[in-house]
Amino acid sequence: MAYSETNVVIGGLAHIPVVIGVFGLVQAFIQSKIGESQSKNTPVTPAPTATKSPSRKTAHSDVPVNTYKPRDPFIGSVVENYSLLKEGAIGRVNHITFDLSKGNPLLQYVEGQSIGIIPAGVDGNGKPHKLRLYSIASTRHGDNFSGKTVSLCVRQLQYEKDGKTIDGVCSTYLCNISPGEKVKITGPVGKEMLLPKEEDANIIMLATGTGIAPMRAYLRRMFDPTEREKNNWEFRGKAWLFMGAPKSANLLYDEDFKQYESQFPENMRYTKAISREQNNSKGGRMYIQDRVLENAQEIFSLIEDPKTHIYLCGLKGMEPGIDEAMSSAAKAKGINWSELRPQLKKAGRWHVETY
Ligand code: FAD
Ligand code: A2P
Are 144 and 122 in contact (CB under 8 A)? Predict the structure, then answer.
């Protein structure tokens, strides 16, 4: 089924009575608990519970998936391909945009999804390359707001083996591709990283490197003026981005985020962990989990709010570190993280996409 914003609006409206009902019950329960606690003269600091995000069940049923499959991919063309890095940065990371306008059906997607790319050429066995997934870095309206482009944020994989530099197949293909070239695209896929519909949701984002891709889409949806006009979604919650990069020159989309922060100081917060320029309290490299620990009180106060969602994206290796940081931060508040995290996950408030 083709996805349209109208479907979302109609779907959302149809569920308003249910949502209001559930909210009413939850509110009444919380009020009664607060009342109990106050009447016993105990401090009112309820431990966070993983209350279900109100519209979780119904919110994403109309999100498109697998419009184009590997056997019959969409052929898009490159609109632009430029470096996101500044002088002195490590490696190679590009922003690449594809034109989708020739699609029939149109390849439509929403923020937080991924697409597959099938690199040109054949592998060592003479077989066509397999697809690689990439998180979409644009909103559903695309960078030019036509609704007919999709953008990616791609790091070229390079590693040393037996004294030789090996280039990753697909990431190198993408970083080298020129405007006008044709590319095989599949998808979209993924419902793990979708944004909630509530305009007053709080969104905590933990990103390393290209893990910023979905976050860039969320933040544009929330704060870019033209995007806001288009999407009819007046975000008024709190968005807090923790971004990990090796050097300042490697910070991706940094100017945009700083601008959102200065234009929406009540709603946007931007905390950086620049591993090779900053040290953590133990003198080691500053990682986002160190920033999480520094801000544990505020993070856990936000998590107490059932409208708060947490998104993790980027290096798989960051997961244990984040878990450890959340554990000790939770402990300081008398909360058991290993119990809370699965509850948050079940409630659709803990979103992870690492690779
Ligand atoms: P390949 O040629 O496939 O090489 C990868 C292989 O090389 C590995 O499987 C491993 O066997 C080997 N290898 C890798 N590193 C080493 C090493 N240090 N030493 C020895 N061997 C090694 N990437 C992005 O850049 N941006 C994104 O937004 C993004 N989003 C993703 C979203 C999802 C859901 C997933 C699953 C992955 C995402 N990726 C993203 C990663 C992407 O899919 C590719 O895996 C990545 O680009 C590498 O592909 P490649 O074809 O260049 O490398
Ligand atoms: P470093 O490489 O200095 O150890 P990029 O993809 O651009 O390289 O950025 C990834 C960022 O994530 C870097 O700052 C990198 O630090 C950092 N990083 C590496 N390992 C981890 C980890 N286990 N947990 C959190 N951050 C990490």
Answer: no
